[in-house]
Specification:
Elements: E1 9-13, H1 17-29, E2 33-37, H2 40-49, E3 54-58, H3 66-75, E4 84-87, E5 100-102, H4 108-120
Parallel strand pairs: 1-2, 1-3, 3-4, 4-5
Helix pairs in contact: 2-3
């Protein structure tokens, strides 16, 4: 994955290949670079290797359940400030440590509104590096 220094990076962790693809397409269409994982363990590895600006997380994940992954993300120094949006949850079901939620079926306008709200809240302070000529 190649990104410019100013391009936002989203991580989509969803066990459903179709939903992961759909969410990725929505984000790419809005200029995001997107990393994808089909289970919690892979999602955790990716977020440890890449500086993400937002995480979209399905709670029904194999290997490492989504709720457990969310808890780990919120205690790790490197990831605690990254906003997490829970996919497939209503506001009543949203875990308290998540910054947002989008119920299923996923609607592009709703997903992108939540992503924009969470990213613009300034929770992630990814340093922008200058490229040398």
């Amino acid at each position: 994955m190649q990104t410019s220094d100013l391009q936002r990076i989203a991580l989509v962790v969803d066990h459903d290949m179709w939903e992961r693809w759909l969410t990725t397409e929505m984000l790419v269409g809005q200029g995001y670079a997107v990393l994808g994982a089909s289970n919690g363990a892979s999602g955790l590895r990716l977020v440890e290797q890449h500086q993400c600006d937002v995480i979209l997380l399905d709670l029904a994940l194999p290997e490492l359940p989504g709720l457990e992954l969310l808890q780990q993300l919120k205690v790790m120094d490197r990831t605690r400030e990254i906003p997490v949006i829970v996919l497939g949850a209503s506001p009543d079901e949203q875990p308290g440590t998540a910054e947002g939620c989008v119920p299923r079926p996923l609607e592009q306008a709703r997903v992108m509104t939540e992503v924009a709200r969470c990213v613009s809240a300034g929770r992630t302070q990814r340093p922008v590096t200058e490229k040398s000529s």
